[in-house]
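Recap quiz, item 2
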Amino acid sequence: LATLGLPVVASAGPTAQTASSERAVTDIIPAPVEAKADAKADFWLSPATVIKAGTGAKQVADYLRGQLKPATGYRLPVLSHSFGLPAISLELGHADARVGKEGYTLKVAKNGVTLKANTADGLFLGVQSLRQLLPSAIDAKTVQHRLWTVAGGSVLDYPRFGYRGAMLDVARHFFNPDQVKTYIDQIAQYKINTLHLHLSDDQGWRIEIKSWPRLTSFGGQTAVGGGKGGFYTQEQYTDLVKYAASRHITVIPEIDMPGHTNAAQSSYAELNCDKKAVPVRTDTEVGYSSLCINDPVTYRFVDDVFRELAALTPGKYIHIGGDEAHATKPEDYLTFENKVQPIAAKYGKYISGWDEIAKAKPAATAIPQFWDTVNDKPEVAAAAARGNKILFSPANKAYLDMKYTDSSPLGQDWAGLVEVKDAYDWDPATYLKGVTESQVAGVEAPIWTETLVTNDDLEYMAFPRLPGHAEIGWSPKATHNWDTYRLRLAKQAPRWGVQGIDFYRSPQVDWK
Ligand code: TNX
């Protein structure tokens, strides 16, 4: 090493500080399919380590290099050969067949780390596991002088469900692009692969639509409580979608319709049946607004919005809302849903929507998002029977805006109080009558922001519950166990500390 001009650490180095008591491959959240710890196989990360990136692995290798640099101070080279130096090798292809599209295998040995996957997504998700094998100080933003040992062992891993989502409501309170990027990085570490952005609601419209400029110039200027609001220009939104993609996260944009539309209807008189713009609303009532179902202008509006939105959306899905349309007559609701779906299809997009859309018998590619608190919802089971995959966000389990206890300073309680154990202890494959494992698209944890304004607020509600939903979405059912999960969860807390995540210290977990 000295001949390479690199610092040499005398002493026993890595063996002087074994990783195994603090962290192990068996501690990873979400729990891997198979993990075998080997305390004698710790890898010592040093300035001489090379990140070896095979074909197609360069983006993930650069991401890893960027993750490791601030705390270690090491400028690890990303190379296609390791030249006999100790290496973290990222290899695409030749992975165990079981790992599929998003899985990976990870081997940490004394002489190097090998991560293999069939896709760049798999490598990225494997890197998230690797990060958890390093000391929590690895996430520090400034150089920490210490040894960096990667806990030894091997992992074979792949997800239970393909859709593992988080939803952020940027309509009730606006979150600027940097705030959303912060949340993206926080969720990516738990292998969340979908970010659903709730871009419009009664209190605000947050995405620039060039053919209807007042949606943002007027409808984007308000928020719950009368705050100043905000919106994303199409350029900013595109940048956000790209940032998410760099974290292997697909963005699904939601325009909520035919209810939750007061911001649009206060911006444009023609969107109201009586052709009078409604007053701005910044209270938190729901279910009072409705687009005008039998007026052709409504569908010109939807067409323009979907056309522009689809052009900003590399993902296959757009979310069309559809919840709590109490001000729309049931027959009008069906008329509306049946007219808007072909518009999405015309612009090459499949739809998702809150579970009410199941009543309109959408095409089998549509994903109804179950958000109710009941265990029996016949129209959702009927959709599953017709071939629709169901996304699970039961409000009394998965809503991150529910209070933990009745003394929680933030959040709501209409779906009940949701402590960390409540949030973890459920199974999407047995939750709803008539919907079984193969009919489940996955799990999404929504965070509604009527009471939430800052990233600290989001963090307090999402942590520690979000990692539990991520685990329900990723890990095999056989690994699901609260008693062992709570111990693994406790070990994440120092990481959140270093990352600046302001979490709720639930008394159900013995935090370090
Ligand atoms: C219900 S759940 C809503 C939202 C609220 C949320 C608050 C759903 C699809 N609609 O409009 O923000 O409750 O928890």
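The chain has two domains: 2-157, 163-484.
Residues 28 and 128 are 9 Å apart (CA to CA).
End of item.
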